[in-house]
Recover the amino acids of this structure.
């Protein structure tokens, strides 16, 4: 026990250790080797996620939506073993937009109708009938529809040009099947465990969770903000660190997880996710000089002047600027008693 | 007639001139006419099938390459013709005129199927390379055994060749190049190529054949360092001379004033002291064959004062002078090679002074072989301490064997073997690309070496010069052509502990020419922060940089100044005179000044 404790103490970070700088250096240095180097696995189109430096930048800047959102959806009960059941769940998730089904749209402004010619191939691959599509459209947009073969006619209540055109645009954008924002869902099998799961090219986990057969406790997405919305900051922090680690691991770059956790901690410390740049951590430093030294110098100085801000000189940047010792490492040690006051102390 | 979509349009230099129904036949017809000499040989025609068009190009600026025409699976350059060529009965132009060789541009090449050698000719072959080596450009073809090297190394080779010292011009003595590098004993390479000989570089080569052993030397040739033989250096290996020309002109100024070459009088503004001008002659310039050190004036010149003064026209004009002499720059020294007086087109007097200095290879000088293998001398070893062969041959240069495998420069090894074989036989060796297969070449060199009593693989038993013991392994030793590159420490070395600072920031200057310091940049700063070395950081960024002491008003927090007449410190804002003397970086003082210029009043509160 004592041995374990000393070990633990030896590994603990010491007082006034500049962990932030060390974290930045520990990620930054291997990051230089990462440029222009990316590996891709041959596979389905949707599963190719942004990787390498662009992905790191995306995470650290706290972009609201990842360039390639992906969700990994595990299944409950028998569906996780049976590929056919899994396909059925995937069908329910797979987002189908009207736009992909349409072959041609003809607006008739004099009659006030929109005639939609559907693609036979697309319909078949999605397992839909023109009737189903028409019903769904009718429900979604509250319009009258009629079906003949592969054509749907939408009867409008008005002959207003603008309204007809707006409805047409709405039709092409409407989600006919699956979960909106879930993207294309594909069933995959873990080659090691044989477990069947679904990968979808979207990040609407709120919607995905509602689907029957989905293991709600194991839904994962690379969209940190989606995690934040659904599960809160703590989960978002973990997701952030996990995504950073995964991106670095993919490039076979080993960075201690504690550096990444620190970055994730700093980004989520306010209760929301903040990027590290001008609009995030660096832009919200308490010191005027530290902010002015980073970006938008004049803006910060003028704002500071108009609010009569005081810089208490507690950070690193501002102390370097004026030429004082930095309050980090050896500089954090201060005299408890001044030399002159020593005589006042009586020895016990 | 073909319908509109199927028409094959004909473009002449990019402009439509018509269309044809049977493009293949049309193109063939034009080509035949060109080969017969009925059309100019500079016309190129290409049938682009994907665009269904025929492009005829006759304009300038196309890069074209000669090919031998192949008909019915047979090269038009027959053995008979080759024989005639050898006997010089016919020449290259004969081949061009008689449709045996033709030039293709990039577009017509799209229609051609080119065979390397007669054996490669198939039913569809239309042309044959004039020589297999012609698949490379001229630059690559001037290096030996290029097909055995990695292409990235060729790119490096091209750069090093530009930087090589040699006999750059045979009238170097009459030239006043601002910088000139001249190798003392240039040699032509033993391993050469056809292209190399053709462009006559052999008459002004830029390197020397060195005996190279692929061996380490007590760790002194790690990581692209090389160890050289001191005796070889003293015999003249890589020795070169460096010329630098200083130019100055007697300029005329508006107002009729003029510069004058002469020894500046002690009254001149900016006079540097008598010792600086001591080597100048009566004409104000240094004498040839004098030795000059840094700080010595080479050309003495006086110029009119920089700013016109009010009493112009008064008798005192001649006396107001400014020293504008040319002084040998810091770190430079040498002998005056030549001094020339001449005149510019504007009839002003010009002086050119050429300084010569000897550059004996020393630690830090750069060398490169012709395979993109560069190295810097790390040690000059006395001959007696160098390894030697059983015959007593001491290598000129020791190259670390680790330089070879990761860089894939097998050509370097092949040249070493070829160079050795050539040196033993007393002949140059042809290293033209694809002239022979690598294995055939190796066998040939092995035979040459064997007949002269050397190991067939080029290996030698080397003895350690220090202990006299033989090395356990046999060491590959041969002759490689090395270039001395013009990057030399003596031109680059610079040191400083304290020195000049910039006027604006009070921070040290940058750059060798200004005796500058090395920048302690942001990343270096981060490293010290990361280490927690706060006092070291302060020393670098403040004490050794722009430390300055300012007076800060205890009342209003503004920066005050010391009034030397009244002998008191004054605050320009509140007029108070209770101050604290604080050490800050001058950069921060400037920042405060600039903030004030934004109409913002920064105040410093002191914790005292």
């Amino acid at each position: 026990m004592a041995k374990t404790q000393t070990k633990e103490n030896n590994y603990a970070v010491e007082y006034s250790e500049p962990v932030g700088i060390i974290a930045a250096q520990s990620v930054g240095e291997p990051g230089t080797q990462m440029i222009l180097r990316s590996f891709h696995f041959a596979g389905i189109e949707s599963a190719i996620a942004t990787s390498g430096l662009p992905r790191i930048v995306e995470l650290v800047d706290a972009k609201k939506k990842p360039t390639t959102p992906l969700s990994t959806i595990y299944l409950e009960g028998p569906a996780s073993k049976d590929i056919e059941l899994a396909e059925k769940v995937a069908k329910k998730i797979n987002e189908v937009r009207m736009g992909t089904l349409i072959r041609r749209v003809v607006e008739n402004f004099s009659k006030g109708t929109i005639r939609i010619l559907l693609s036979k191939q697309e319909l078949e691959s999605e397992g839909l009938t023109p009737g189903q599509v028409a019903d769904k459209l009718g429900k979604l947009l509250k319009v009258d529809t009629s079906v003949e073969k592969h054509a749907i006619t939408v009867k409008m209540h008005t002959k207003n040009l603008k309204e007809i055109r707006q409805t047409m645009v709405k039709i092409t954008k409407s989600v006919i099947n699956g979960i909106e924002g879930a993207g294309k869902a594909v069933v995959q099998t873990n080659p090691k465990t044989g477990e069947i799961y679904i990968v979808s090219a979207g990040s609407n986990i709120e919607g995905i969770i509602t689907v029957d057969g989905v293991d709600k406790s194991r839904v994962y997405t690379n969209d940190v903000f989606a995690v934040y919305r659904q599960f809160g900051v703590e989960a978002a922090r973990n997701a952030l660190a996990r995504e950073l680690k995964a991106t670095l691991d993919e490039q076979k770059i080993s960075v201690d997880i504690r550096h990444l956790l620190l970055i994730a901690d700093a980004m989520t410390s306010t209760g929301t996710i903040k990027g590290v740049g001008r609009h995030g951590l660096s832009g919200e430093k308490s010191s005027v000089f530290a902010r002015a030294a980073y970006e938008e110098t004049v803006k910060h100085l003028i704002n500071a002047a108009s609010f009569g801000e005081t810089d208490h000189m507690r950070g690193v940047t501002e102390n370097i600027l004026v030429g004082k010792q930095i309050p980090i490492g050896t500089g954090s040690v201060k005299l408890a008693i001044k030399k002159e006051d020593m005589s006042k102390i009586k020895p016990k | 007639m073909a319908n509109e979509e199927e028409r094959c349009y004909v473009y002449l230099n990019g402009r439509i001139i018509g269309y044809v129904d049977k493009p293949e036949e049309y193109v063939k017809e034009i080509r035949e006419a060109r080969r017969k000499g009925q059309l100019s040989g500079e016309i190129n025609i290409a049938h682009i099938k994907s665009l269904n068009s025929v492009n005829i190009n006759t304009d300038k600026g196309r890069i074209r390459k000669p090919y031998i025409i192949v008909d019915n699976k047979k090269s038009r350059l027959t053995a008979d013709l080759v024989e005639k060529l050898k006997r010089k009965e016919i020449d290259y132009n004969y081949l061009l005129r008689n449709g045996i060789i033709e030039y293709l541009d990039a577009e017509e090449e799209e229609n051609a199927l080119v065979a390397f050698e007669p054996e490669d000719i198939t039913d569809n072959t239309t042309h044959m390379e004039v020589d297999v080596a012609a698949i490379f450009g001229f630059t690559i073809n001037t290096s030996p055994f290029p097909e055995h090297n990695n292409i990235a190394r060729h790119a490096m080779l091209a750069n090093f060749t530009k930087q090589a010292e040699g006999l750059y011009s045979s009238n170097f003595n009459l030239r006043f190049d601002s910088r000139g590098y001249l190798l003392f004993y240039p040699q032509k390479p033993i391993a050469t190529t056809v292209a190399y000989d053709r462009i006559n570089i052999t008459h002004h080569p830029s390197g020397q054949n060195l005996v190279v052993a692929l061996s380490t030397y007590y760790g002194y040739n790690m990581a692209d360092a090389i160890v050289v033989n001191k005796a070889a250096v003293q015999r003249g290996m890589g020795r070169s001379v460096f010329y630098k020309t200083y130019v100055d002109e007697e300029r005329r100024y508006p107002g009729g004033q003029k510069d004058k070459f002469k020894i500046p009088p002690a009254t001149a503004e900016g006079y540097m002291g008598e010792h600086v001008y001591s080597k100048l002659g009566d004409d104000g310039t240094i004498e040839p064959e004098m030795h000059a050190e840094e700080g010595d004036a080479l050309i003495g010149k006086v110029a009119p004062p920089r700013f016109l003064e009010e009493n112009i026209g008064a008798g005192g004009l001649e006396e107001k002078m400014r020293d504008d002499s040319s002084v040998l720059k810091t770190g430079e020294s040498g002998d005056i090679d030549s001094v020339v007086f001449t005149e510019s087109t504007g009839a002003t007097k010009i002086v050119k002074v050429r300084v010569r200095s000897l550059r004996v290879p020393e630690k830090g000088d750069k060398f490169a072989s012709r395979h993109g293998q560069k190295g810097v001398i790390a040690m000059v070893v006395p001959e007696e301490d160098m390894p030697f062969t059983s015959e007593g041959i001491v290598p000129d240069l020791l190259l670390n064997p680790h330089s070879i495998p990761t860089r894939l420069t097998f050509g370097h090894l092949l040249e070493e073997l070829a160079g050795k074989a050539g040196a033993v036989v007393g002949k140059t060796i042809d290293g033209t690309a694809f002239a022979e297969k690598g294995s055939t070449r190796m066998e040939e060199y092995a035979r040459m070496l064997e007949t002269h009593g050397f190991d067939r693989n080029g290996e030698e038993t080397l003895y350690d010069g220090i202990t006299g013991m033989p090395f356990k392994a046999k060491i590959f030793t041969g002759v490689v052509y090395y270039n001395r590159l013009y990057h030399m420490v003596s031109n680059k070395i610079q040191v400083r502990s304290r020195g000049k600072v910039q006027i604006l920031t009070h921070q040290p200057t940058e750059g060798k020419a200004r005796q500058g310091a090395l920048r302690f940049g942001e990343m270096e700063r981060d490293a010290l922060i990361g280490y927690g070395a706060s006092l070291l950081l302060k020393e670098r960024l403040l004490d050794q940089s722009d430390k300055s002491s300012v007076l800060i008003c205890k009342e209003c927090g503004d920066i005050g100044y010391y009034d030397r007449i009244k002998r008191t410190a004054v605050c320009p804002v509140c007029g108070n005179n209770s101050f604290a003397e604080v050490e800050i970086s001058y950069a921060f003082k400037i920042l405060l000044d600039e903030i004030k210029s934004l109409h913002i009043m920064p105040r410093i509160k002191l914790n005292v």
